[in-house]
Specification:
Elements lengths: L1 E4 L5 H9 L3 E4 L10 H11 L2 E4 L2 H9 L6 E4 L6 H20 L4 E4 L1
Parallel strand pairs: 1-2, 1-3, 3-4, 4-5
């Protein structure tokens, strides 16, 4: 899987996803950390990335769109990096399975 980690999440998540065997980059790698959702969405479409975000706007847009990138919507409140990575490690197999099935919006709560 190819993941693009949005600005509300730390780059450590992208590095962790790479350690788990996936391709992942943080938006900052592409200079997108201050860009609009539209720019990030379009970048993800061109790159074939799944957007990992805490931004509800991406989830809403995915529900209304007929095409575009899949979204992993992280609905975990403010937390430390170790806590976030622990939660993600619990959910990653089901996230990957859902994406493999073709689901386009996966919520992680």
């Amino acid at each position: 899987m190819r993941f693009l980690v949005d600005a509300q999440l730390r780059p450590v998540l992208a590095r962790w996803l790479v350690e788990q065997g996936h391709q992942a980059e943080h938006v900052a790698v592409h200079g997108l950390e201050r860009e609009t959702d539209e720019v990030i969405w379009n970048h993800a479409v061109r790159a074939g990335d799944v957007i990992v975000t805490k931004d509800e706007d991406f989830a809403t847009r995915r529900l209304l769109a007929t095409d575009g990138p899949a979204i992993v919507w992280i609905r975990i409140g403010n937390t430390t990096n170790p806590e976030l990575l622990t939660r993600m490690s619990e959910h990653l197999p089901e996230i990957v399975a859902a994406l493999t099935r073709g689901e386009t919006l996966i919520e992680v709560a």
